[in-house]
Amino acid sequence: MNKFFLFLIHYSLFIIPLTMLDHPIKLVVGFITYGELTAKYLPFFLNSLFANLNELSNNFKVLAIDNSEQQDDQNIRYIKNNYPQILIEWAGENIGFAHAYNKMIKKSVDLKAEYFLMFNPDIIIEKKAVKELIKAMDDDSKVEAISPKVLKWNFENNKKTNIIDTCGIQLKSGLRFVDSCQGQDDVGQFNNLEILGPSGTAGIYRISALEKIKQNNQYFDELMFMYKEDCDLAYRLFLNGFKSKCVTEAIIYHDRTVAAKGNSNLLIALNRRNKSKQEKKWAFLNQHIIFVKYWHLQNFWNKLAIIWYEIKILIFVLLFERYLLKQFWKLRKMLVYKVIKLKVIKSK
Hints:
- By secondary structure, the protein is an alpha/beta fold.
- Helix content is 42%, strand content 21%.
- It is built from twelve helices and twelve strands.
- The protein has helices at residues 2-21, 35-39, 42-53, 74-82, 97-110, 129-139, 207-213, 229-239, 265-271, 277-294, 300-320, 326-336; strands at residues 27-33, 60-66, 87-90, 115-119, 123-125, 143-154, 159-166, 169-172, 176-179, 194-195, 202-206, 243-254.
- Strands 1, 2, 3, 4, 5, 6, 7, 10, 11 and 12 form a ten-stranded mixed beta sheet that branches. A two-stranded antiparallel ribbon has the order 8-9.
- Helix 4 (74-82) links the parallel strand 2 and strand 3 (87-90).
- Helix 10 (277-294) packs parallel to helix 12 (326-336).
- It is globular and about 55 Å long.
- It starts with a helix and ends in a 12-residue tail after the last helix.
């Protein structure tokens, strides 16, 4: 009898740790750091993040990719000294938004996580926001992606505002994408808003859905180094019949460097003065990659809208931003070497 009990004790000590190691994780949180641009935000961001995560019974992992040029970076030093539980990896160089997040999503798949939650580090997360996002996903199995309600944060004065930064991505005619409700005062008028998908600022995804829509083993299209890759992912979710929404009970505050100030052609043109040349190059090229990828799926009127947009943007570029013409050459090389993937997987 004593030998039997000894056997049970030995068996349990061996088996239980193995099952714990194999136990799927509910949530993986991922974010990207890059030099001084993000280091100044980390004390605010990480304090608010872990205030949320500590309510989740340790059923989570936090991953980070550091895209800084130097390995001995202030972001890595701060995280290792203050939040050693974060698994941070130096990328070796700036590998871009899409590639960095793809690495973290693949790690989430390896961890058998159910949800992947992405955050820009230039935010403050209100209490219970993460719990609200998870609850919304748990309560509706038909929802594959959720955006929180993102309000503007004045970082320099550490002042939260009631002005909406984004409630997620919405689709306009001609394959144009905008941050929904941006610049409007929040008076609760956008509760339960249906969206195309979350903005790259913040969003939670069901990993099983990301697995179904990935292309070339990529979730975010890595042709898009930065900008518009969140629009491309949101559009693929939509094309595959997946539902996304904004949960306004989950609130975060975002210090956006450059925000839209209106949807008219004049205001859009004037707002471009606040963007760097590199940002405009990335956004210009990536928008055209989207046009090429999904042109064959558009109806006659939407193709006409794309053509009309192209005429307007070409006139503007010839008059004010001729350096963007080189992006057409990059696009042509992509087409010649057939690196732009046209296939859209229909899973539903």
